[in-house]
């Protein structure tokens, strides 16, 4: 789905509605809206509405950025990316002094307005500046109301602070994973920077930096997991947060897909899990798209990996569709007749898998490895049927109401049927046996100590039995301290009241006894009164018990609530015909969409770019898929 960013087309780039045969090279700064609540064919050029940016302060034409979607607030968040090096309609790009400063922007779907967002966040461990890194993998966890963005890098056109960097050669890698929590019950959105490991295999390979990979949220365990797949990384372990020169980003290599990395949101632990082939494992690749589809009964979770780039140096691409099925961690080849593209996004609408944007490096133009010089002349979308496991020419709105089934080849690998019932529910070997407790919440988690160190020098979470994630730890500590302090203060107040009562009674009784009794009996009666007062004191205060088996349950903040979806809004805008070239360049988060849905694209490149999209619910049965397409010159 094209959007703000660079566009390139044969003889130029962007279409002109008054002269459809004319194309020019330029940028698209608009949101494009695709209605997936009605049938369409992939050749239809008039499906997109445009929403233009009217505020000149809003960053224009950002490439390789990420989009998050908040169902709770009904907003889109734009973060990361770099200013396009291609000007609009063939004009020169913005000079470096005009490159926008780093920051996170939000788009209110109801008012259709952009505003600076990060000034209103509750920031934790983010430092003074939120970098605008590109090539980050990202995804949403809609059931938690949390979105994630993982690592990436900054370069000359990331923001004006890097104007002295040499173009295309100087970079700075960013460590950590940002998490934006917009769940209900928070006073304001909470942005947390979560530390990431240096290595998960004893420094045999470095965990990051990672660019142009994929990340999806899988609903297993208490809060689900994030699965990191592929992308490319540096040959040698780099210095995070420092300028690296001499084409440091040019010697990158694709990450081996015989392992994937897992983040357990509940505990905050990272894991490195081996994968297995049925019979083969796909080659390493980047700039693919991922989408997760669970079996109807939840017995398996199937991650679709569509196409992608298998060589970052010459941009050669793959045409395959693979499924990584969990929890067996088996790779299964589903399709090998797909169009060979990279930099696209994919989204599930019932049993329709809609592929948006992308670059076809096998078509014309020469360049590195057949690097794309021309774009498709048709609509920038393809449809893969999850019912027939084939590409089709038409989007089927009736299929949007159907539950996607388990692919036949996956059933052959893990057993069961199209509706679930997988027999194989664990891998051949757990690379870390603690993962079995993550995937099976019915098992009682033992204490666990992570063996890795974080890239920023910090320690990973300590010994835990489940417990709070790094996003909640600080808030929970404050809550527990409040409970303890309140209990102590309340106990002190109760003791003071009882002590005051005792003093008052003693004085009163003493005076009465002095008036009524003889001096020789006064001492004994005072002792009796003291004994009565001790009994009264003991009745008011609970006795201390040293029984270690008695547990006191303290109140703790509730976990992030699952949101059903806030009221939505079908985005309206300029109905003029947008460019319909296939565009793209990036990773994607996907979610199920209802048949009365709209898909929105933001920021992209045609011809040499890629796409990102974020999904969420909208009014009634509406769900908005919000995305952007980006790329590089």
Structure description:
- Keywords: Membrane, Transmembrane, Transmembrane helix.
- By secondary structure, the chain is of the alpha+beta class.
- The protein has one domain (5-423, 563-631): Kelch-type beta propeller (Neuraminidase, 6 Propeller).
- The chain is 13% helix and 30% strand.
- It is built from four helices and 36 strands.
- It has helices at 408-414, 435-439, 470-516, 519-540, and strands at 5-7, 14-16, 19-24, 26-35, 40-41, 48-51, 62-70, 75-83, 105-108, 113-116, 122-124, 137-141, 146-150, 153-154, 172-173, 177-181, 190-194, 214-218, 225-229, 232-233, 253-254, 259-264, 270-274, 276-277, 289-294, 301-311, 316-326, 330-335, 342-349, 352-359, 381-385, 390-392, 394-395, 598-604, 609-617, 623-631.
- The longest helix has 47 residues, at 470-516.
- The chain is globular, with a radius of gyration of 30 Å.
Entry summary:
The protein has 633 residues and is of the alpha+beta class. 13% of the residues lie in helices and 30% in strands. The chain has one domain: Neuraminidase.
Radius of gyration: 30 Å
Cα-to-Cα separation, first versus last residue: 18 Å
Structural class: alpha+beta
Tell me the number of helical segments per DSSP (H or I, 4 or more residues long): 4
Helix percent band: 10-25%
Q: What is the fold named in CATH at topology level?
A: Neuraminidase
Number of strands: 36
Q: CATH top level?
A: Mainly Beta
Question: Largest sheet at a glance?
Answer: 6 strands, mixed
**Which band does the percent of strand residues land in?**
25-35%
CATH architecture: 6 Propeller
Shape: globular
The CATH H-level superfamily is Kelch-type beta propeller
Counted up, domains total 1
Stretches with pLDDT under 50, minimum 5 residues:
1-21, 364-374, 474-504, 515-581, 583-598, 604-633
Average the pLDDT over all residues and give the rounded result.
Answer: 74
